[in-house]
Amino acid sequence: GQFTQQPGRATRYPYYPDGVGAGPAREPKKEDEMLVDPRALAVKNPPPPDQAFFTKIDGESMEPWLPDGTIVLCKKCKQVTAAGRYVYWIDEENGTLCKRMEKVGEDELKVTSDNPEAANWLLTHVEDDLYRTQDEQTIRIQVYGRVVYPPDTAKSIMEQVTQQLKKVVG
Predict the structure, then answer these.
(1) pLDDT string in tens for the chain (170-residue length)
(2) Rounded to whole angstroms, how far apart are CA atoms 66 and 59?
(3) Does residue 167 sit in helix, strand or coil?
(4) Strand bridging mode 71-76 / 52-56
(5) CA-based nearest residue to 124, from 135, 116, 114, 113
(6) Cβ-proximal residues to 108 (8 Å cutoff; 6+ apart), any chain
(7) CA angle 38-86-54, nearest 5°?
(8) Does this model's pTM top 0.90?
């Protein structure tokens, strides 16, 4: 597995293998659990299980840094407080997504993908969890957590680049 464990050190975290949310104003349904040794995470202070969850990246919009199938640890939150990678629910068609999110000014939210071929948005806050797209559509965004593992640091990005190069070079 991606995570190691040692007796007496393993911690049981909620794990949502099929995404986090399932509709407007609904809490994520706990699907499974993951037994993890917090020392195996490259996170300075991993959040406790009641404040965090694991989920799986579905899709290619965050490649190369978070490839399809990557397991991520998220610290629970309901809004974007600082620039970072967030897991959020958008609608029935798209479900749960992971993107970089950043507040811009008082009422705008910048939503970007790491993959240059994927869509990026600049959204204007309407009220509560409703935002207006640049083409005047109103969408609902429910933030569930900020990705804390794998960390978004220069070292972790270089490790990811090295892994990707090894796949290509053989």
Answers:
(1) 445 444 557 888 999 887 665 344 345 555 688 888 877 777 778 899 999 999 988 888 888 888 888 889 999 999 999 999 999 988 767 778 899 999 999 999 999 999 888 889 999 999 998 999 999 999 989 999 999 998 886 676 677 667 767 877 87
(2) 9
(3) helix
(4) antiparallel
(5) 135
(6) 122, 123, 124, 125
(7) 35
(8) no
